[in-house]
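seq:
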Amino acid sequence: MTSAPGAPAGRTGATVGVVAPGAMGTALGRCLAAGGHRVLMTAAGRSAATARRLADAGIGDAGSVDAVVGAAAVVISVVPPATARAAADEIAASARRTGARPLLVEANAVAPATVAEVADTVGAAELDVVDAAISGPPPHPDAEHPTRIFLAGPRTAEIAGLDVPGVRWIALEGGLGAASAAKMCTASVRKGHQALLAHAVLTAEHHGVLDTVLADLRLDFPHDDVGHAAAAATKAWRFVDEMTEIAATQAGAGLTPDLFEALATVYRHLATSEWGARRPEDVPAGLTSAAGLHPRPDAP
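struct:
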């Protein structure tokens, strides 16, 4: 059966909207469908590539955000960090237009303070929020290791009860912001490391010691290579804002924001490199040349 809007179903059979159909959102939609849920997404106002991504995932286009929000019991927001607030505005406005009251899952890589802002925004439209944070790659129903999604907030159990192959829900104690705080901490280590690796690779290449540096690093970090740094560069445009959200989270804990504001600059520069304009799947196995990692000379 399909649940009525505002009343999430049990383990299967919920109607779930996903905003928006990027790589992560579409992957999550595919897993939701595999769990027996009705999935609503739309490529309205987006690129032809986005429409193809939906089609390739076997997900129909609902036609508009109002069609997604108006019919869903649960709406998951999974957008780049810089657009999390705008997505919340759009979902709240749609809820007012349609009279729907879906449960919003705020699943973006943002600081706890941003989650609070989103909750205030959609709360004005009488929507409740579950704080969520995705830790790991885009999920796949058949993945050997499910993608972990932290959850926090008063209605966490309703989301943790949804059967979604390829996803492992991890319910946390604490209120809204706890899941995002966990994500900001884990991302600070993982993505901070990737930024450090990219700079080490470029500096080692400049001094003619790249092979030596990588061989030594692999003693402690077996996966460190040029390809790993190039893959990070392909996502640098999105990581810039994630670094600023991490900086804000650390500042909220009484720590200096300087470290991750600087790493935001590193990713801002990497985004101007040749790899910054490519996709992760474009990075060839065994990549050894660091040439495509160089930022544009006039990078801001």
